[in-house]
Amino acid sequence: MSLIVVGNLDDELYGDVAQYDTQGVALKKYTKLSAAVAVAASSALLFTACSPGGEPTTDNEADQGVAEGQQYTVEPEDTGKADLGDIETAEGTISVGMEQDFTSYNNMMADNYSTYNSQIADRISGGFNYFGTDGTIYPDEEFGTIEVESEDPLVVKYTINDDAVWSDGTPITAADYIFKWAVENPRTVDSNDETVFTPVSTTFGEYVPNAPEGDPDGKEFTITYDEPYADWQLVVDRALPAHVVAEQSGLSMEELIEAARNNDGDALAEAAEFWNTGWNVTNALPDEALIPSSGPYVLTDFSPGQSVTLTANENYWGTPAATQTLTVRIASADTHVQALQNGDMNAIEPQATVDTLEQLEGLGDQAIVHQYAQMTYEHLDFNHAADSLFGDSYELRQAFALCVPRQQIIDNLIKPLNPDAEVLNAREYFNFQDEYQEVIDYSYDGSYDEVDIEAAADLIEQSGVDTPTVRIGYAAPNPRREQTVSMIKDSCDEAGFDIQDYGAQDFFGPGGGLSSGDWDVALFAWAGSGQIVSGRNISHTDGAQNDAQYSNEDVDAAWDIAASTVDPEVHLEQRKEVEKLHWDTLYNIPLYTHPGIAANSADIANVRSTATQSGLQWNIEQWVRPEAEAE
C-alpha cells in the first residue's frame, strides 16, 4: 500500500501512509470548526485488533442520519461507517464535484495514484479495511477477515467473504492477491533484470518475500513477513481483477499465477503491459468486461472533462448502495459553489478559501457546511535531480527557503479560515498531534522562520548562478496556489531569483510536469490517514513516489529502521531523525496543515466528511435523499 502519505482534491497526493468532521446530516444548516485529533493508537500497535475508538474529529451536534427506512444515529465518538441495517437501494441520482479528470481504473499505477482517481476507485473496490474519519483503521468484514496466526515470524491469514464476486460474477479469490503481490514485488523482473510493473508502492513485495500461500481458486490466503513491518495492516489493500489481466495477456489463470509466484517478468510481459496502460482512460471507458467492480458501484459512463457515472452494483453481496446512481461532475473548483446552489452538484469539497466560505454561508438553509482540520500538509518540493537547478546547489535551496514568506502565506490565506493556523515545521507530524513539539524541538532550529532577503541574495551570489529561474509547478487552475506563487515571487525576486508560475492542468497527470521532471519547485500537498511510515515511499531513495529524486543514505537508513519494527518508541525516534535530516539537507519546505471546507445540499442525508485522505465521498454509498423510494 502506498500513503495518499499521492494528486489532488487540492492537489493532495496519496503516498504510502499514506492518497478528508463527522456529520450525519440533520436537515438544517450548521457550521462548526473542528479540531483534529491525534491519530488513534490502534494503527501503531501490531497485534491490537482494529476497532472503533479515538476522539471524534468534530464536535457536531447533529450526527444522525434521517433517511426514512435508513435512519441511523452516529454517536460523537464513532468515526467509522454507521450500520444502515437492512436497506434497499433508492432510485435517483446524487451528484458530487471533482476538480480534475478521471484518468484510470487502475489507481494503483504510479502515475495514476491521485485523490481524484482514488475517489472513483474506492466506489468500485472492496477491501479488508478502511480509514475512519480520524485515521482509525476499521475492518470491513463484509469483504473479509484478517487473523494474525503468528507474531514471530509475522504470519497473517486473510479470508475473503464466500459470497464476494466481481460484478461480472467471477469469484474474488486468492488469485487476485497472488497477482497483486507480483505486481508490487520489485523482484518481478525480466531477463534484463528490469522490473516490468509500475506500481505506486512495492511494500507488499519488499516485506513479504514469498507469494501468498493458498489455493488460487480459494477464498483464503496467508502471507509471511521476513521481518516486522510498521504498517502491516495496510499492506493488503485493493486488488485488481487477475482474470481480466490473464485474458488480456493471452495467459490462462494457471499460467498467470505460476509466473506471478516465480517472479517471471518475461512470462508476465504482456500482463504488465496491460496492467500499466490497459486501464487508462482517454476518450471513453474501457469495455465493460475489462472494468468489473468489487464494491457497491460499477463504472457505467465517462465524458472526458465533464463527468463520471457510477451505478449500483447488482452483484454486490454486502450492504447495497443507498442511492442507485452517482454522477461525479468534473469542473474547476471556482464553479462548485454555484453548481451546488443550482443543484447541479449535491456535494462539494472545494479549496478552502475565505471567498468560498462566505459563498457557502450565503446559501443559508439550502446547504450544510462542514469546517474541519485535515491530515494534509502543503509544501514546496525541490527537484533534486542532478541536472536540475537545486539538485546540486544547497546554497540555492537555502536562498529560496530564506525568501519564501511562509508566515505571510499563512496570515493571508489560511488564518482567515482558521485563526489558530500556524506555520508547519514538520512533514511526518501535524501540529495538532501530541508529538509535534518534541519532533520540531529535535529537528528544526528556526533558521527559516523569518524572511531574510539579504542573506538569500548573498547565497545566490555564492552559488555563481546569475538570476536563477525557478519554475514553480502545480495543478492549475488553483486560486490559493496562484496567490502563494505570487507572494513567493514578490519576495524571492527581490533576493535575485526569477520566479515563474508554472501551473498547468496536467501537472500531476501521466506524462505531466511532475513525472517528467520539468519543474524546479513543485507546490502541492501530501494527504495522510495515520500510517506510520508513509513518508518512506516519498523520500527514500527507492521510494516509488520519490518524484523529487531525493537521495540520502542516512534518511534511507532511518526509514528502514522505522519500517522494520512495531515499537512506537522506535517509530518516533527514527521519524524525528528523518525530520532533522530533511531540514539539514532542505529536502523540501513545509508550509501549513490544510483547513477543510465541504458542503452538501440539505436534502442529502448521511453525508460525513473526514480529516483523512479519503475525502468527503468516503461513505458516499450511504448517502440518500430521505424522500427517495427504494427499488
Question: What's the gist of this structure?
Answer:
This protein is α/β, with parallel strands linked by helices and 631 residues long. The protein has helices spanning 115-121, 174-183, 203-207, 242-248, 253-261, 269-278, 336-342, 354-361, 394-403, 406-414, 436-443, 453-463, 479-495, 513-516, 536-539, 553-563, 568-585; strands spanning 12-13, 90-98, 129-131, 137-139, 144-151, 154-160, 220-224, 297-303, 307-312, 323-330, 347-348, 367-382, 469-473, 498-501, 521-527, 588-601.
Tell me about this structure.
This protein is of the alpha/beta class and 631 residues long. Helices cover 25% and strands 17% of the residues. It has helices at residues 115-121, 174-183, 203-207, 242-248, 253-261, 269-278, 336-342, 354-361, 394-403, 406-414, 436-443, 453-463, 479-495, 513-516, 536-539, 553-563, 568-585; strands at residues 12-13, 90-98, 129-131, 137-139, 144-151, 154-160, 220-224, 297-303, 307-312, 323-330, 347-348, 367-382, 469-473, 498-501, 521-527, 588-601. Strand 8 (297-303) and strand 9 (307-312) form a beta hairpin. Helix 2 packs across helix 5 and helix 16 packs antiparallel against helix 17 (568-585). It is globular. The protein starts with 11 loop residues before the first strand and ends in a 30-residue tail after the last strand. The model is unreliable at 1-70 (pLDDT under 50).
